[in-house]
Amino acid sequence: xxxxxxxxxxxxxxxxxxxxxxxxxxxxxxxxxxxxxxxxxxxxxxxxxxxxxxxxxxxxxxxxxxxxxxxxxxxxxxxxxxxxxxxxxxxxxxxxxxxxxxxxxxxxxxxxxxxxxxxxxxxxxxxxxxxxxxxxxxxxxxxxxxxxxxxxxxxxxxxxxxxxxxxxxxxxxxxxxxxxxxxxxxxxxxxxxxxxxxxxxxxxxxxxxxxxxxxxxxxxxxxxxxxxxxxxxxxxxxxxxxxxxxxxxxxxxxxxxxxxxxxxxxxxxxxxxxxxxxxxxxxxxxxxxxxxxxxxxxxxxxxxxxxxxxxxxxxxxxxxxxxxxxxxxxxxxxxxxxxxxxxxxxxxxxxxxxxx
Length: 356
Ligand code: ADP
Known about the structure:
There is one protein chain. By secondary structure, the protein is of the alpha+beta class. It folds into two domains: 15-196, Ribosomal Protein S5, domain 2 (2-Layer Sandwich), CATH 3.30.230; 202-347, GHMP kinase, C-terminal domain (Alpha-Beta Plaits), CATH 3.30.70.890. The chain has helices spanning 81-97, 122-142, 148-162, 166-169, 218-223, 231-251, 254-273, 284-297, 323-337, and strands at 15-28, 33-34, 38-39, 43-61, 69-74, 104-112, 174-177, 190-193, 203-208, 304-308, 314-318, 342-347, 353-355. Strand 2 (33-34) and strand 3 (38-39) form a beta hairpin. Helix 1 (81-97) packs parallel to helix 2 (122-142) and helix 6 (231-251) packs antiparallel against helix 7. The model has no long low-confidence stretch (mean pLDDT 94). Adenosine-5'-diphosphate is lined by residues 53, 74, 82-83, 86-87, 110, 112, 116-123, 126-127, 130, 214, 217-218, 311.
């Protein structure tokens, strides 16, 4: 924790604060929700390091203390109603607890280090960074003294209301969200999880097969689970996979980890494909890459697994001792196919932090 965390400015009239929050890659997928952003099944994720959002809030007095006024910029650009609506909703929710936010004019500047809306969970990093920054602001304006743990738990709760998987981004190195996963896990917020030492550093090379925003957003995708023919089966599968994944992560069992990670990725896409309105997000190149990756891996005993979120881009997760071999395979595949595919080389991260 930073020693400046509970430093309260005497002048709260105007100022600036900034938070960085990472994306996370789900090993057990969250797909389907009910009520107020509650998941239909528990999920488990690894927090990333270099795929993150950095969000700065500048605040100053405004003339009338009604609803909060704000301006939102992504990479110094106005990004339109879709972003603004979600940002405005979260401000409203957090300002209900911290009403002095409504007395301020907020200028919010955010950057993502990776393309948004393509299945690398910018919603997780973006909404968690925003929740953390707004909570920080509320806490300062109201002079609230909170322990760092209580602050993070509250931020995870608010991040969840912004975007479900965002609640997991607050914690590292891994996070669990959803009732029933462990004795203390809940649907309200995520909790941190520390695995066996061998899982503390896992590389994640993300192959960007498309930077084009998805045609079906994750929010629309979750709705497709409401009347899904396989809904009950999925809930049972995710609960069983969660228990097995937590056992694998605790004991350092890479074989089990690989099996469940890949089962979850394919199950997610299977659910999308079998929705009443089918969603096909994998591209021919994504499928070709997966086929070639499995052939490359065969018989080598590599601690390496693929996973895919709701999009066409593929994450290859692997242990540090296989870095050279796996990374060379990825580079050669791209060179041989002469495709303009970017790779983000990420790894397990340390969680969100305030920048001073
Ligand atoms: P992704 O796979 O990137 O999570 P989604 O469609 O699920 O795709 O989420 C994208 C949405 O996340 C955007 O439309 C926007 O509402 C939100 N978002 C992305 N980046 C940010 C950011 N830096 N700050 C606030 N919200 C963001």
